[in-house]
Amino acid sequence: MGIARLQRDDVVAATVEALGLDAAIADLETPEVLAAIVRRAASFLCPITPGALARSVGECLDGLVAKDHPETRGSLVRAMLEELVAYGDLIEAPIEDDQSGILRRLLFLAQPSYVPLASGICLLVGIRADGLSIDDGSLDDRVDYYNHTRRVTLGSDEEPADVLGGLGLRELSEQGWLHHPPLGEAADLVEQHSARLAAAGPSGSVEGVQILDTTTPVTYYRGRWRAPTQRDTGEFVGQRPIQFGADQWCYCDLADGELMRLVDLPAVDRLGRGCDEAWRLQAAIDAVAGTPQLLRVRPGRIAGEVILQFQSPIPSWGQRRLDALGQPLGRQPGSLFAYKLSDDLIDQELAFLEDTMWLHVQREGEAS
């Protein structure tokens, strides 16, 4: 038996088909395919650090994607990994090493589950180990893939417990899956974190700290990150390098650019995600400063649809609510990410985002 040499396009097509998706309309950079690749890699490698999982997937894609610069390829993978953690396919939790005592955040597989929603739609959440499908193959023609989400629409005479519970999937209530922090004023949240920071002891010298600059435009999230300078005095959301794993989220007190105190995040829910606390805290800081983060709203291409364009990241509980009620569109021109929602849901969802994240809503045609 001879060995055939495959061209890149043949390898890509075979990979997409093996993942149960259509190679005629998708490649390895298509969000739905990339999500399936990350889920499959995680099924074999978890528990693992987020960075190690992202590197492993990036190495597998080497030479197979058009955007093949390592940094560009890595950013695609890391962004999808964040989506899957926020959605609930993967669980990120702090684990202390028994020998070194170092606290690292590891990824674990979430238990295969379904979240029943209105209108007979159920979200599929979780990953089985060793590359096994979340179902027995009976749902292959009924699963709809949207970016990082998986949905099954049941008939009016079908019960989720019978169809999905019979496949070994546990029911996860919508309320439990969408759990979000209590509502409150932006100033109160900032004050609570400031009190924690004031109670912290001196931090000493910490190299490599990066901060989110509140004075820079809220419309360009990546451009807000920078190193402290002598002009910086006050409190800032930031990140600091740690010996192992991704940078640690923190809340910093600076004086003339020098770090005086810091509190690691999460500070409220130790089992939560540092980025979730940090992103909501930064939204509160921006709102208190009079420059709330921006949410652009425009009509969709089809009547009755509305597009929400976000300029800054939102916590996982906010993303899950949008995953349940809308359709993720990924990165869109002029936004960090976007969602499509039905027009009849828009008022309640805008109210929710204004109440929990203090966003400023700008509808198409309105002045900034």
Concise synopsis of the structure shown:
This protein is α+β, with helices and mostly antiparallel strands. It has helices at residues 8-18, 31-45, 50-60, 70-87, 160-163, 174-177, 186-199, 274-288, 316-325, 346-357, and strands spanning 90-96, 103-109, 113-116, 121-125, 143-146, 149-153, 170-171, 210-212, 225-226, 234-240, 248-255, 258-264, 294-299, 305-310, 327-330, 337-342, 360-363.
What is the 3D shape? globular
The secondary-structure element order is HHHHEEEEEEHEHHEEEEEHEEHEEHE
Q: Please give the largest β-sheet.
A: 5 strands, mixed
Average predicted local confidence, pLDDT: 89
Beta strand count:
17
Arrangement of strands in the largest sheet:
5-6-4-3-7
Query: Helical proportion?
Result: 25-40%
Q: What is the distance, rounded to the nearest whole angstrom, between the alpha carbons of the first and last residues?
A: 66 Å
Content of β-strand: 15-25%
Rg (CA only): 22 Å
What structural class do the secondary elements suggest? alpha+beta
Oligomer: single chain
Distinct helical segment count? 10
Poorly predicted regions are none
